[in-house]
Amino acid sequence: DAKTTQPNSMESNEEEPVHLPCNHSTISGTDYIHWYRQLPSQGPEYVIHGLTSNVNNRMASLAIAEDRKSSTLILHRATLRDAAVYYCILLNNAGNMLTFGGGTRLMVKP
Amino acid sequence: GAGVSQSPSNKVTEKGKDVELRCDPISGHTALYWYRQSLGQGLEFLIYFQGNSAPDKSGLPSDRFSAERTGGSVSTLTIQRTQQEDSAVYLCASSLEGGGRGDTQYFGPGTRLTVL
Q1: Could you tell me which residues come within 8 angstroms of residue A28 by beta carbon, excluding any fewer than 6 positions away?
Q2: CB A36 within 8 A of CB A49
Q3: In a structure prediction context, what are the per-residue pLDDT tens digits for chain A, which is 110 residues long?
Q4: CA distance B24 to B37
Q5: Of the candidates A80, A79, A71, A98, the residue with the CA atom closest to the CA atom of residue A3
Q6: Residue A44 and residue B43: Cβ atoms within 8 Å?
Q7: B109 contacts chain A (CB < 8 A)
Q8: Interface membership of B59 toward A (CB under 8 Å)
Q9: How far apart are the first and last CA of chain B?
Q10: CA neighbor of A100 nearest in space, from B34, B43, B57
């Protein structure tokens, strides 16, 4: 199964951009790259997903490397409410979440 | 609209007892997932239901775990003869279609199970 690797933790200052990296060197051609985040004591929350092209939504941007072996979640202006564990996940055609990274704990300093 | 709901929110049980955890997915969602999350750990996939297809049970850790989904809606996860290592937060998610089409999963708040 394709695996993802992420840094254990990152720090950011409030109002500054944050780039959260994810490596998935064994990704297959049919795997979608999803990002979810989990705030303390809550269930995971969808952030963004993509296949090949970069994606933007109201929460974040997703930059996908040309060879798809890595991706970066970009929070354009971190807020205190963005402090969470961010998971980079590969979703295959079966539709179930087979592969989880360890997640990156993002800490946002005021 | 209503999101995914789970009950109970907390469950404390004694080792060896059976427990049932309930999940009400978002209305109209055909795919339903169960996961568990041990303290400080990432998500562990348990089982996946998609429409009327046979469920994908590949993540169930032992035959003490089973799940069903009645009428394509509500799902129940049953753990028989609970063990202390079963203590975790059990999360349910639903999505509109399932499948590798970039479908978004919506998670419930989870059931925190503590086995004494």
Answers
A1: A2, A92
A2: no
A3: 568 899 999 999 999 999 999 999 989 888 889 999 999 888 899 999 999 999 999 989 999 999 999 999 999 999 999 999 999 988 876 656 655 667 999 999 99
A4: 19
A5: A98
A6: yes
A7: yes
A8: yes
A9: 37
A10: B43
